[in-house]
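2024-03-11 09:14:02 INFO worker-7 job=invfold-0412 stage=load source=structure_tokens
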């Protein structure tokens, strides 16, 4: 596919989610699984926009919880395509927490999700290449390839180990 799209065309910035008591775990902090579910939905929107069609989550890499969110926080999601390959793309997500009524924003989560675009038959289909237009985008683009290379290397190592142990 020769088409390219700029990351800004599909980006989601400042998508907010207000924390309520039912979002809290036994430690009275926000349940991480709820944050991850919201993150997956927002990143799916980014992937669908970039691909111009339905995308599905293929993997989630490097979910890092930096700090807890608590009762009274508002979660602020930021998501952007970091790189697109043939039929897949990496979407990066950053989540901040801000206190209602003021206070400094806190970076609470970063993650990288891989999505695959599907055609009407449910088979992978090509996605547009990503146009990178600034130094931050270029860094994210290069880092995404490093993460992909590591994922593929890890998959090969696991496959080899399983073949060795099953023989």
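2024-03-11 09:14:09 INFO worker-7 stage=emit residues=167
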């Amino acid at each position: 596919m020769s088409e390219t799209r700029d990351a800004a065309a599909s980006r989601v910035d400042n998508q907010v989610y207000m924390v309520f008591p039912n979002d809290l775990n036994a430690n009275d902090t926000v349940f991480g699984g709820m944050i991850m579910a919201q993150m997956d939905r927002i990143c799916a929107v980014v992937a669908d926009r970039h691909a111009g069609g339905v995308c599905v989550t293929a993997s989630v890499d490097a979910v890092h919880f930096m700090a807890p969110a608590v009762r009274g926080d508002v979660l602020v999601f930021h998501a952007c395509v970091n790189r697109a390959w043939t039929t897949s793309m990496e979407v990066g997500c950053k989540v901040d927490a801000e206190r209602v009524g003021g206070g400094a924003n806190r970076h609470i989560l970063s993650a990288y999700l891989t999505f695959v675009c599907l055609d009407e038959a449910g088979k992978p289909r090509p996605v547009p290449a990503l146009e990178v237009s600034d130094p931050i985008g270029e860094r994210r683009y290069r880092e995404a390839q490093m993460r992909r290379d590591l994922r593929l290397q890890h998959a090969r190592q696991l496959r080899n180990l399983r073949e060795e142990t099953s023989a």
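2024-03-11 09:14:09 INFO worker-7 stage=report msg="Residues 135-166 form the longest helix (32 residues)."
2024-03-11 09:14:10 INFO worker-7 job finished
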